[in-house]
Amino acid sequence: MQRENYFLLGSLALFSFCLSYFLSEVFPTPLWWYYPLDQHWEYGVLTTPGLRMGWYGKVLFSFEVSLAISTLSFCLVKLTRRQTSASLLQGLNLAAMSITVFILYYFARTLIARM
Amino acid sequence: MLQATAQPVLFLQPQGKLLLLAHALMAILLLGSMTHNCLITLRYLGGHFAKIRLEKLYVKVAFVAYLLSFGLGSLIYPNYRYHVRARYFDQTMPWASQLFDIKEHWTGIGLALFIVFFLFSLILNPKEDRTPLFVYVFLSLSLTLIVWFALISGLLLSSYRSV
Prior knowledge:
The structure holds 2 protein chains of 2 kinds.
Chain A (H helix, E strand, L loop, with lengths): L2 H24 L4 E5 L4 E5 L10 H26 L5 H28 L2
Antiparallel strand pairs in A: 1-2
Helix pairs in contact in A: 1-2, 1-3
Chain B lengths: L15 H29 L7 H41 L1 H30 L6 H31 L3
Helix pairs in contact in B: 1-2, 1-4, 2-3, 3-4
Keywords (chain A): Membrane, Transmembrane, Transmembrane helix
């Protein structure tokens, strides 16, 4: 596989991670929740009330989505053996950078507003 | 007569201080290596490619430091969540809880950025790969910003109350 394709997959993985991380924040998404006082895990959207932590599940969920999309794209690129166009790579790079800036800004702005 | 209230024992609570110290040491190593890396990658944009091997060494050091720091932070987190955040910050300093949440989300996103950055560093030739070079520099700059923010906010929060 050409090196350009690896760069393409990297940018796609980054884009899909940031997008899924953001979407799991704004839409109800089934995640793994950790209950530190009981030291147990629960999976779902609405779980048992109490002190719980969703960050582990959110990171895991975003990695799963990113890995799934990257693996599918890798197989597609392998099967079709198409050469990556420069404009596609540039567009995806720009999308990955834009969503990264957006998501960092989104969390900073939302949480600063709650201070 | 006063009755002692039963305190829950959380995951790795007895090792909390030791883990926090190791977490901070890894963060300092990470900050140094990432800052040096960023200073070199920024020069790539101006066409200066004299320190490619050194820059890639910084990426390897920083990647290991990030993984260790992230892992140690994740292990301390349940202890922090109850003993520091729920019992202290949420009651008296809500801004500190929000500041930690920004750190938490940024470092979670930073992990994905770092994995991509590390993989790019393995295959990127800064002299030839002009299109991905811009993303590479962007990742270096973003990660440096995240690491600086995480270290400063972590030190600030620990100065108020730690595990």
